[in-house]
Amino acid sequence: MTALWNAPSTLWNQPGLVWAPAPIPPSNNQPNRPKKGKQMKKQNYFPSRLGEQPEWLINFATKLPIHATALSLAAARVTAAVGDCLWAAYVIGDWRTAAQGFGDTISGAVAEAHQGTGTAVQVLPVFTVPALPAGVAAVLPGAIERIFRLVKDIKNALGYTDVIGSDLGIIGPEVTPPPPGGDTPRIKLFLEQGVANQIVRLTFFKDGHQALHIECRVNGGAWVFLALDTASPYLDERPLQVPGTPEVREYRARFWDDGEVNGNWCDVAKVTVGP
């Protein structure tokens, strides 16, 4: 005999009883959950670093009305795109910066709750949202994707020229061709500030291969495997081995295809990672 754990009038120690889990309620009884957003395709003209994106957005918002007539863009679409740009620039720039800074305030409040002293009750800090700049208003989600779709339409417009594209900032850099042989990865390192310490952004070109096999060593120690990465960049967000103490990290990589590492090791790239 089998019973569910929540079956009524059933004793837990009834002889010969085998317990089974309760059934999962039908999906229409499940609480509403946000849908998982689709991954946005990267655009080589749009800055990959968050700190550089507001400047691009503001430039696009400023220049778009200038070229609207040549591109045969409807006034309503230009106005909407400018609004998308200014709102996204605010969220990615002023709002994000203030919110990240508030994280340190939160850490201090938690520390005070743990180990603080005094005779007055603790007062928790309140995050003050930066004021919206003049002319900026909230828009529907997906502002950046809408801008990317507009850029695609702009490049297909009859009046589009490279001069307009350059002024709008929608012409990406030329991709450097692979060196002769094409069996050695090309990697570059960039430092970004993380929550606990700096993190390393490792960018690379696959040159037609499936993935990169990435290794790292710290302070001249042994090489250790980090990842098989199929898409640039790879983010090394590991904490410092000794908290608060800078360390030297070296990186190297080889190509990976069909389950095997192949090709040559790239030149070792080195960076000092600090708090």
Write up what this structure looks like.
- This protein has four helices and ten strands.
- The chain is of the alpha+beta class.
- Strands 5, 6, 8, 9 and 10 form a five-stranded antiparallel β-sheet that branches.
- The chain folds into two domains: 50-113 and 126-168, no CATH class; 186-273, Immunoglobulin-like.
Comma- or semicolon-separated keywords:
Immunoglobulin-like; 10 strands; 275 residues; three-stranded antiparallel beta sheet; 2 domains; single chain; alpha+beta; 4 helices; five-stranded antiparallel beta sheet
Mean pLDDT: 84
Total helices: the number is 4
Structural class: alpha+beta
- In total, how many domains does the architecture comprise? 2
Quaternary assembly: single chain
**Content of β-strand:** 15-25%
Termini gap: 61 Å
Helix content: 25-40%
Order of helices and strands: EEHHHHEEEEEEEE
| Uncertain residue ranges | 18-38
Cα gyration radius (Å): 27 Å
The beta-strand count equals: 10
